[in-house]
UniProtKB/TrEMBL annotation:
Domain CSC1/OSCA1-like N-terminal transmembrane: start-end pairs: 21-173
Family: Belongs to the CSC1 (TC 1.A.17) family.
Domain 10TM putative phosphate transporter extracellular tail positions: 782-874
Organism: Podospora pseudocomata
Domain CSC1/OSCA1-like 7TM region: 402-675
Residues that span the membrane, as ranges: 20-43, 102-121, 152-171, 404-430, 450-474, 495-523, 543-572, 592-613, 619-639, 660-678, 684-705
Compartments, record wording: Membrane
Domain CSC1/OSCA1-like cytosolic, first and last residues per copy: 196-390
Protein name, as recorded: Phosphate metabolism protein 7
InterPro entries: Csc1-like, CSC1/OSCA1-like_7TM, CSC1/OSCA1-like_cyt, CSC1/OSCA1-like_N, PHM7_ext
Coiled-coil boundaries: 234-261
Keywords of this entry: Coiled coil, Membrane, Transmembrane, Transmembrane helix, Transport
């Protein structure tokens, strides 16, 4: 009995910092987040390029831009909230919209969890007689299994209600996604793209790398066929050509800057520069003669021709690059022509454009070859820019071997990473370790506030830093496994990184946080093992409360404010971008969200919240706050800051939704284990029944919906083809090309899509009257997505009258050729200067490679100036919507 008392006393000592850790974590994090937010509110008003580039940036089409927000400190928030989420679908991408919808659904899951669990489990746990202290009185661990065992029935039925809600929401959102994806992909704006009619087949056998053979298989529906071949020789020459061209551009700019700096110095010393400037205007001078008026030959840009520019002959960079380009440009053109003539060995990757989207989808769903794993990998809707060309050369047998090797490596990586993650988890439980192990007793002398920071803030921050390295490795693994597209790499990373998050951030940390205390107590009092397990394991939730605080406040405010990124951007743009091209690229390129590394983080947070929902319900409150902050921050970024570079056609959404089943299973298994530890046969039986129900529900859901998640139904494709003609006539009066967005349930009463401004102001208008059913109330809309979020309804949410520019024959001919085959010598862009050096350099360099000094000048102070918000620069290229 004395052991039991000692154990209890030890437990209370270990518990005593739960509230202290919460406060110690919350205080510094709140201060940091408040400072970030203050900086954001101030900078947002003036730094439009960084905090609202989507409202005006010239690299975006008008239809891709967002409405500007008011410029006050706080008056923008109301206008921001009035923009419906569906705006992201109509102005950016399906992925962008579903990303913020997922965060919204995660918020709903956590908030509804509070409503379901708190009113019942808080009083049940708080009066459970377990003798716990501080935050632990609200958890399952405060229910004494010896005296209050019947209270476990409350946990059973509450878990039924909440886990049932989670599963229904997953099903509902999968149905919503299927209908929305079909409506989006069948809209003219998407279906008329060449990628929607094109299928990539990999692992094509050698005897089918022949256009005639392929046309025999696919018949008259095959319109254009691109059989890929090895491009090593083309790649090397084009890469070398472009490398030398950029070296020449930088050398020309350096020459201009040096000459003008010397000229300005001479003018300050009383020299008359008018005669030299006059010669610059008249031109037809010897190469370099204008710069030579201000610079000696030794002052011109030079480099060494050896490796890394450290050894070898020292040469004049401009003259050397011109000579090299005179050789490389025709050689590159010759090898490109050689590729087009079919002189290189074919590889087992074929792109086939079909006559229609319906024919392409039918070809993607058919069995193309009679041998296993031949032509079995096919991707429909792939854009040329997202093809990983090296993966197309991988034969079928290598794909199998590579996949197993990669999976084995990831498994080993998870095991290896368990060591540092376990250390982080142990730090969070340092109070108990210091009490039980004498060689750590000195830790008890640390002030309570500092100890709270060590056990609360430090592990959370360390874990976040540790995990940031993993997605890079996962993407590399995906490419090594032979994924043929960047979108496929992101989906692979989403799967692998989620598994990594669950095992490392959740399970390993949970076990390492609770195991030392639990094992030691069981050794001291083996006869009380059930009580120790029932009371000890739930305490690991304290770590995740602080983890949610760090993630929700620090990470969310960092996503919103981007303070560090802003200063990095400013430094790079103002001081390190020293060419016109670098200035333009830094100014015009928007940051993009990496779906594969962001979605798993938030999915894992929800999984943790679901797992602990009925064990430590307080966690759901912090998870709700965290998910709200994430939703707010990413919603702002999607609308005003980021761009979509990787298009998964929305597949990130159902993948993340179905990963939430992990939380349901873990929650059920943990509850079952706790009931077994508490020797409560009734709750055990009820939990087993519900686990069986969950498995059957999960299996039925996958069987029914999986084919619709990844394929387009022929019935809709046929109907849409016919309806498109009627749509064209009905929408003729509205096809003015304006961008449009509509709230999820709302069009105006006449079924006419409103303008962007009208829809922002009246985003809660009535749904289209042509719907075959009533609008319904909130509850019926939620419970019956197959009625109120069906294809006909969601079809009205996507742009119906935005037309694509017509493809030229040249664009179609080269659409799915490797980029090195179609790449032309780049246009060099240098600044115009008062001395006229640029004009002379253009006169001589243009004989070899295109070059211009339009759109940028070198001012009297030697700084580059260009019209950031005016006319398009000469290196601008129109984005082709393949």
């Amino acid at each position: 009995m004395s052991n039991s008392n000692n154990t209890s006393s030890t437990g209370e000592t270990a518990e005593s910092s739960s509230l202290s850790a919460l406060v110690s974590t919350l205080a510094p994090v709140a201060v940091i987040s408040g400072a970030y937010l203050a900086v954001f509110l101030i900078l947002r008003r003036s730094k439009r390029r960084y905090y609202a580039p989507r409202t005006y940036l010239g690299s975006l089409r008008e239809s891709e831009r967002s409405p500007p927000l008011p410029n006050g400190l706080f008056n923008w928030i109301g206008s921001f909230w009035r923009i419906p989420d569906i705006y992201a679908l109509q102005h950016q991408s399906l992925d962008a919209y579903l990303y913020i919808r997922y965060l919204q659904m995660a918020l709903v899951l956590c908030f509804v969890g509070c409503i379901i669990t708190w009113p019942v489990l808080f009083p049940i746990n708080a009066t459970g007689g377990g003798g716990q202290k501080e935050l632990d009185i609200l958890s399952y661990s405060n229910v004494n299994p010896d005296t209050h065992k019947n209270r476990y029935f409350a946990h059973v039925f509450v878990s039924w209600a909440y886990f049932g809600f989670v599963m229904y929401l997953i099903m509902r959102e999968c149905i919503f996604y299927i209908n929305l994806r079909q409506a989006f992909l069948l809209s003219p704006f998407y279906s008329e793209r060449i990628s929607s009619r094109t299928v990539l087949f990999t692992c094509v056998p050698d005897n089918y790398l022949n256009e005639a053979k392929l046309r025999q298989v696919f018949g008259q529906n095959a319109k254009n066929i691109w059989i890929t071949a090895r491009t090593d020789e083309v790649d090397d020459l084009v890469k070398e050509r472009d490398k030398v061209a950029m070296k020449l551009e930088k050398a020309e700019i350096k020459l201009i800057k040096l000459a003008n700096k010397a000229r300005q110095k001479a003018i300050k010393n009383g020299a008359n520069a008018s005669e030299a400037d006059k010669q610059a205007i008249t031109g037809d001078a010897e190469s370099g003669s204008i710069a030579a008026r201000w610079l000696s030959a030794k002052s011109r840009p030079t480099h060494r021709t050896g490796p890394l520019g450290l050894i070898g002959k020292k040469v004049d960079t401009i003259n050397w690059c011109r000579a090299e380009l005179e050789r490389l440009i025709p050689e590159a053109e010759a090898v490109q022509a050689k590729y087009r003539s079919g002189a290189f060995k074919n590889i087992p990757g074929v792109f086939i454009e079909f006559t229609s989207q319906q024919a392409a989808e039918a070809a993607a769903q058919m069995l193309a070859h009679h041998q296993g794993l031949h032509m079995s990998n096919r991707v429909v809707g792939i854009r040329p820019s997202e093809v990983i060309w090296k993966s197309l050369a991988v034969p079928w047998w290598q794909l199998v071997i590579r996949r197993y090797i990669v999976l084995a490596f990831i498994a080993a990586l998870i095991i290896f990473w368990a060591i540092p993650v376990a250390v982080v988890g142990a730090i969070s439980n340092i109070n108990y370790l210091a009490t039980e192990y004498s060689w750590l007793s000195w830790l008890t002398d640390i002030p309570k506030v500092i100890l709270g920071v060590i056990t609360g803030l430090l592990p959370s921050v360390a874990l976040a830093i540790l995990m940031s390295l993993v997605p890079i490795i996962m993407r590399l693994c995906a490419k090594l496994a032979g994924e043929p597209s960047i979108s496929g790499v992101e989906l692979f990373t989403q799967n692998a990184y989620f598994a990594f998050q669950v095992i490392q951030v959740f399970l390993v940390t949970t076990l390492s946080s609770s195991a030392p205390a639990v094992i030691e107590q069981i050794i001291n009092a083996p006869n009380e093992t059930p009580r120790i397990l029932a009371q000890g394991l739930p305490k690991a939730s304290n770590f995740y409360i602080t983890y949610f605080i760090v993630q929700g406040l620090t990470i969310a405010t960092s996503v919103l404010t981007q303070v560090v990124g802003f200063f990095i951007f400013t430094i790079l743009y103002k001081f390190l971008a020293n060419t016109p091209r670098a200035l333009y690229q830094k100014w015009s390129n928007l940051s993009a969200i990496s779906w594969g590394s962001t979605m798993p983080v938030y999915t894992n947070i929800v999984v943790i919240a679901i797992t602990y929902s009925c064990i430590a319900p307080l966690m759901l409150g912090w998870a709700t706050i965290a998910m709200f902050l994430f939703y707010f921050a990413w919603r702002y970024n999607v609308f005003f800051v980021t761009d979509t570079q990787i298009d998964t056609r929305g597949l990130i959404y159902p993948k993340a939704l179905k990963q939430l089943f992990v939380g349901v299973y873990l929650g059920e298994i943990c509850m079952l284990g706790l009931f077994i530890a508490g020797t409560a046969p009734g709750p055990v039986i009820l939990m087993v029944i519900f686990i069986i129900f969950t498995v059957l529900f999960h299996y039925s859901l996958n069987t029914a919906l999986d084919p619709l998640l990844y394929n387009m139904p022929m019935s809709l494709l046929a109907e849409e083809e016919s309806a498109r003609l009627l749509d064209g006539e009905a929408g003729a009066s509205h096809s003015n090309g304006n961008d449009k967005f509509v709230d999820e349930h709302d069009l105006n009463g006449d079924g006419i899509v409103e303008s962007a401004e009208e829809q922002v102001a009246h985003s809660r208008a009535a749904r289209k009257a042509a719907a075959a059913h009533s609008k319904g109330n909130f509850l019926t809309r939620f419970l019956k997505p197959w009625i109120y979020s069906d294809y006909a309804t969601l079809r009205n949410l996507v742009p119906r009258h935005v037309s694509l520019p017509q493809y030229t024959p040249e664009i179609i001919e080269n659409a799915y050729n490797p980029p090195s085959v179609t790449s032309q010598a780049p246009l060099l862009w240098i600044p115009a200067d008062p001395a006229g050096v640029s004009k002379q350099e253009i006169a001589h360099t243009s004989k070899i490679i295109p070059i211009t000094d339009e759109g940028c000048i070198l001012n009297e102070k030697g700084k580059l100036e260009w019209d950031e918000e005016g006319t398009r620069p000469p290196v601008w290229e129109e984005k082709i919507l393949y």
